[in-house]
Structure formats: structure tokens, C-alpha cells
Design a protein that fits this description.
The chain has 361 residues and is of the alpha+beta class. The protein has 11 helices and 6 strands. It has a 4-stranded mixed β-sheet, with helices on both faces. It has a two-stranded antiparallel ribbon with strand order 1-4. A hairpin with an 8-residue loop joins strand 5 and strand 6.
Length: 361
């Protein structure tokens, strides 16, 4: 699965970040403010052009009706990690467009944001904003903080929202969640036309080394009348500057941590279909080759059978020839004996005649 931002937007956002990186009094100068405003307006035009062509489908779409479902409240660590790996794989492709290093998924980051999502659901926090209380409770539980920061503003996540059916009881199409993550990624970058800033894009591109994805479903008062709930999608990272101890952070949340996972590649539906088609083609090619081999083998077997038959004929011919040779020898021998017997008979007759003559005398 691949994703990329419009090159015009990438270059424009780089320029905006450069303008926004000014520090001190210069940042507040009128010319500086006007330059940032003009750049955002320029980027918003590009955003609107791009997003008008994107079709975001809700989980209520018919195409997800018969899909395998996942229970968001009881999502397994394995399933959660697959979604985290998927999102990270996509975002790393965009980070590469900005010359940023790749991030990886981390088990401890995963457990942290999963806990924060669980608290969000337990408390049914229905506002369309970060649940600071839940994030800070989870940060304390997993040793990121050494005290509960209460409602201190979010230091960990970017969050996006979509709608799901209340009647689904937090059971969502697995495939929809992949598509929702892809859509959220685009919304985090192409966001100024909705938010007026690029705070989420900055988070996607910052130097946090590891990330993970969390899901929470809560009620939504404004949508309850039409039977919908909120699906909250959180992209979390634990930056070294927000952890209470740098060595502990390095041990638990850095790229060097033993709990940091190697990236994986997850195919899109189109890529899976292409691979399936290629497999069908390859299977057919193998079957065709097997048929040719079978024919060749049969021909070879037929030829061998004929050779064997000829050899048998040859053997029989040889036997007949031997018998013929023996018979010929016997015949010749008998003829020779006859020739010998005839002179002997003549000789006996001559001797007999002579004896008769002598007697007459």
C-alpha cells in the first residue's frame, strides 16, 4: 500500500514550516504574520482541490456490511499492532517526502494509548477533542509521568473522528478501520481548511521515534438522534521531552528499545487482488507446463515401449537364428554323413563282387 502528498503541497508546507519556525519578536512582526497567512491560504486552495476528489466512506456503507468485524472495546494487542504498523508504514512514506527519518511501532506506546482509549470509553468522553484526563492517567500508569497531570493539555496524540452505528455495539469492519486510518492520515496533513493550522501535520513529522494507534468509541450527543456514535482514532507518540526520565524513555520508547518492532509491509486490497491474479496466472503456467511434460513423458513412455517390443523381437529373432544355425549344422552334418556312407556302400559292393568272381574260378 502506498500513499503520497501532492508535491505542490509538500513544497508549500515546507515553506510554511520555515516561516512558522521564526522565534522572538520577528515572529510577531506584521510582515511575518502576513507571510504565514498568505502561505496557509495558498495551501488551503491546494487542499480543497485534492480533498474534493477523495471519497471518504463511513462504516455504515453497504460495502462493509458483510465484513469480518472487530470489537473495539476488546481489541487484541495483536490486532491493534497491525493497525499501528499499517498507519506507520503509510506515514513513513509521507515523512520521506519531507526528508524525515522513519518511525517504528513500540509495544509500550501501544499499551499506553490503548489504556488511554479504554479510559475514554469507560468514561464515555463524548467531546470531539482530546481526553486529557484519560491520557494523563495512562501516562502515570505506564511510568511516563511521576504524578497525575490531571487535565493538563495533550502532549501525546493527534486525533481524528468519524461515525459508526450505535447498533453495531462497538463492532466495526476490520477493513473499514484500515481505510479510516488512511483517510485520517490525509486529514492530518490536509487540515488547514478545517482547523486553520498544521499542528497535526507537525506531530506527524516531528522527531518522535516510535508511535502507535488507539481506537475509542463513545457516544455523540449531536448524532445520537440518528443512531450514530463517535469513533476516535488516536495517533500517539511519547517524545523524549515529555517523559520524566530520559534513560527510562530510551529503554522503553526509543528506537533502541527492545520493545520497538521492526516495520512490516501491509498490502492494499488492490495489491492483494493483483497478487492473487498473478498467482492464478503462475498456477496456470505450471499446469500448462505439466500438461506438456505429461505429453512428453507419455511420448517417451510410448517410445520406450516400442524399443522394448523391438528388443523382444530382436531376442526372438536371435533365438530363431540360433535354432536355424543349429538346424543348418545338423543338416550339413547329415549330408556329410550321407556322402561318407555312399562311398563305403560302393566299396562293400565292389568287394562283394570280387569275392563272387573268385569263387567261380
Amino acid at each position: 500500500m502506498t500513499v503520497s502528498l501532492d508535491p505542490r503541497f509538500v513544497e508549500g508546507l515546507k515553506e510554511y514550516f520555515e516561516l512558522d519556525s521564526q522565534v522572538g519578536p520577528e515572529y510577531f512582526e506584521l510582515d511575518s504574520q502576513e507571510a504565514r497567512k498568505a502561505k496557509i491560504e495558498e495551501l488551503i486552495k491546494i487542499e480543497k482541490e485534492i480533498m474534493s476528489k477523495v471519497n471518504f466512506k463511513l462504516s455504515t456503507a453497504d460495502e462493509y456490511k458483510n465484513d469480518e468485524k472487530i470489537d473495539i472495546r476488546n481489541i487484541s494487542l495483536e490486532d491493534n499492532l497491525i493497525y499501528s504498523q499499517y498507519f506507520t508504514m503509510l506515514n513513513n512514506q509521507i515523512r520521506a517526502q519531507f526528508g524525515k527519518t522513519a518511525q517504528k511501532v513500540n509495544l509500550n506506546t501501544q499499551k499506553f494509548i490503548h489504556e488511554a482509549a479504554k479510559i475514554t470509553m469507560d468514561d464515555d468522553y463524548s467531546e470531539a477533542m482530546h481526553y486529557h484526563k484519560g491520557l494523563n492517567k495512562a501516562a502515570l500508569k505506564f511510568g511516563i509521568d511521576d504524578y497525575d497531570h490531571g487535565n493538563e493539555y495533550n502532549r501525546f496524540e493527534s486525533q481524528d473522528y468519524t461515525f459508526v452505528r450505535k447498533s453495531d455495539n462497538k463492532h466495526i469492519s476490520k477493513r473499514f478501520l484500515f481505510n479510516a486510518l488512511h483517510n485520517s492520515l490525509l486529514r492530518f496533513y490536509y487540515e488547514a481548511h478545517m482547523t486553520g493550522h498544521y499542528g497535526h501535520a507537525k506531530h506527524m513529522l516531528n522527531d518522535s521515534e516510535t508511535v502507535a494507534v488507539g481506537f475509542a468509541i463513545t457516544s455523540d450527543l449531536s448524532s445520537a438522534i440518528v443512531g450514530l456514535d463517535y469513533l476516535k482514532i488516536s495517533i500517539a507518540s511519547v517524545h523524549k521531552y515529555v517523559h520524566k526520565n530520559r534513560e527510562e524513555w530510551k529503554r522503553d520508547y526509543s528506537l533502541e528499545s527492545k520493545d520497538t518492532l521492526e516495520p512490516i509491509y501491509i498490502n492494499s486490497d488492490a495489491e492483494i487482488r493483483e497478487k492473487e491474479e498473478n498467482l492464478v496466472k503462475a498456477t496456470k503456467a505450471v499446469e500448462d507446463a505439466k500438461k506438456v511434460l505429461d505429453v512428453a513423458t507419455k511420448n517417451a513412455d510410448d517410445a520406450q515401449t516400442k524399443v522394448n517390443e523391438l528388443n523382444k523381437i530382436k531376442e526372438k529373432t536371435s533365438d530363431v537364428q540360433k535354432k536355424l544355425d543349429i538346424a543348418t549344422k545338423e543338416k550339413n552334418k547329415k549330408q556329410k554323413m550321407k556322402k561318407i556312407k555312399k562311398p563305403r556302400k560302393n566299396l562293400r559292393n565292389i568287394i562283394k563282387d570280387q569275392d563272387t568272381k573268385e569263387k567261380k574260378r
